[in-house]
Design goal:
Elements (H helix, E strand, L loop, with lengths): L3 H9 L6 E8 L2 E8 L5 H14 L7 H7 L5 E4 L2 H9 L2 E6 L2 E8 L28 H11 L5 E8 L5 E8 L5 H12 L10 H4 L13 E3 L2 H9 L3 E5 L5 E4 L17 H30 L7 H10 L7 H21 L2 H21 L5 H16 L4 H18 L1 H17 L1 E2 L2 E2 L23 H4 L11
Antiparallel strand pairs: 1-2, 2-4, 3-5, 4-5, 6-7, 7-9, 8-10, 9-10, 11-12
Helix pairs in contact: 1-4, 5-8, 9-13, 9-14, 11-12, 11-13, 11-14, 14-15
């Protein structure tokens, strides 16, 4: 008598060469162990499964008896071939017999993964240095290590028709609003896609409007994710990705750094002001320069105007062409440095920028004032790494509008950008939150422009938890 589950496994995975079958004769028939060679721990398979079975062959007369003998902590009796194949592909060993139509699975998985390391994103000078890895089990353990709370809820899903990727939705019951949790769980559970390889496959389902700004957070540090969970956010973790998505996500978080909460709060206040100032400068300065040098000469001081005119005397291009050309050179060198190995990428981007800038100045392709403006723009865009992409595109759009309409286009762009930010939302929350909602929940303003005391901030939650 053959086992129907084993027959289906052999037929379905007949072309897969790394599926191994181990048959053991017992008193009532034959016991067969099926496993995938590449994703199981051989030591667990030998000492916790094979050895106990071989020492108790005579008493193995039922599937329950086999389950009692096995030493692995996770075992489950399966009734269908589909369940058995899913477990087999997840790193489990499947045990079948020819006297029982059911099967038994045992967790002996051992996926290769890197050790916990310091992440390249969200670098900190002071504070925890651990970062997530590509293993969802390791990542969940890093969360559990920091949140030893019975209210921590972890719900597992399997997404991707072909990839069958494990996905975890994490939140703190009581801190996270019920509507937010329900919205995220419904979106994740109803996601119909063929492949899920990274968190962005899920994040795009929550981005309901066309925008350059991220309305879904993304972090690689466990302490940051835990802080967001305590605030009432919901985290989404995907097997194979070291990045964890966080919902909702607000615009002001782009100017916050993880070590803001591990250093002196008065120093942090100054640093945050610098970050806001650098964003405004990177967006507006090149366009303001173009508007003044193209249309509004009367607003420029006379001494500076004469120097500017003499510097541009040999430049054959208008100001907008100068600015766009130098920004193009800058972004090309920056992209080359990002894609190349670190050992030569930084050097290449620095050298190419210096050479291109000096050569453009000597060749008369750009004036000294333009080089200074683009240099300031280059520095200020890097101060807020989460906003580099939007800053580049928005600054170019602002330059174009200012070159066409002058300061009128400059002001129009600024108003349109603020209106666009105010129109965005993240899971039903205003993207500029808590701005505009301070009257309803004044405690959230304590971590807006400057950071308040940590003991006061710790009671700020979306669910409305109050200080006792």
């Amino acid at each position: 008598m053959s086992n129907p589950i084993l027959d289906v496994i052999e037929k379905t995975l007949s072309e897969t060469s790394d599926v191994q079958y181990k048959s053991i004769p017992i008193s009532r028939g034959t016991l067969t162990i099926v496993f995938i060679n590449n994703i199981v721990e051989k030591r667990l398979l030998s000492f916790h499964l094979l050895e106990p079975l071989l020492h108790t062959l005579k008493s193995l007369d039922s599937m329950e008896a086999i389950q009692d003998v096995i030493c692995t902590p996770v075992t489950e009796i399966l009734n269908t071939p589909e369940e058995a194949i899913e477990k087999l592909l997840s790193g489990y060993a499947v045990i079948t017999t020819d006297f029982d139509p059911r099967a038994l699975c045992c967790d002996v998985s051992d996926y290769s993964s890197r050790n916990v390391q310091k992440p390249d994103t969200d670098p900190v000078i002071k504070g925890p240095q651990e970062g997530f890895t590509e293993s969802i089990e390791n990542n969940l353990s890093l969360i559990r290590k920091r949140i030893r709370n019975k209210d921590l809820i972890i719900k597992m899903f399997t997404l991707g028709t072909s990839s069958q990727t494990p996905v975890a939705v994490i939140y703190l019951q009581g801190a996270a609003p019920e509507k937010l949790v329900e919205h995220v769980l419904n979106k994740v559970s109803q996601l119909k896609t063929n492949v899920v390889l990274e968190t962005n496959y899920i994040e795009e389902e929550f981005k309901e409007r066309i925008t350059l700004f991220d309305t879904v957070g993304n972090h690689e540090k466990p302490d940051v994710i835990c802080a967001n969970l305590f605030e009432g956010r919901v985290a989404i973790m995907v097997e194979g990705s070291p990045s964890v998505a966080v919902l909702p996500y607000f615009f002001m978080e782009n100017f916050q750094s993880p070590d803001d909460y591990y250093t002196n709060r008065y120093v942090v206040a100054a640093m945050r002001i610098f970050r806001y100032f650098s964003f405004v400068v990177s967006i507006l300065l090149p366009a303001f320069y173009v508007a003044l040098t193209t249309y509004h000469h009367s607003l420029v001081p006379m001494v500076f105007l004469f120097k500017l005119a003499s510097a541009r005397a040999g430049v054959p291009f208008p100001s907008i062409a100068e600015i766009l050309l130098m920004i193009l050179f800058l972004e090309l060198s920056r992209e080359a440095g990002r894609r190349l190995p670190k050992s030569i990428g930084t050097t290449l981007s620095l050298v190419s920028t210096l050479i291109l800038g000096e050569t453009a100045l000597k060749a008369g392709l750009a004036s000294g004032g333009t080089i200074v403006i683009v240099g300031i723009y280059a520095v200020t865009t890097l101060i807020n790494p989460k906003l580099v992409g939007p800053t580049i595109i928005l600054s170019v759009i602002n330059v174009i509008l200012s070159s066409i309409f002058g300061l009128h286009g400059f002001y129009l762009f600024f108003i349109m950008m603020i209106a666009h930010l105010a129109s965005l939302d993240s899971c039903g929350y205003p993207y500029l939150y808590p701005m505009g909602t301070i009257g309803q929940n004044s405690s959230n303003s304590k971590d807006l422009l400057v950071r308040g005391k940590l003991k006061e901030i710790s009671y700020n939650t979306l669910g409305g938890k109050k200080k006792p």
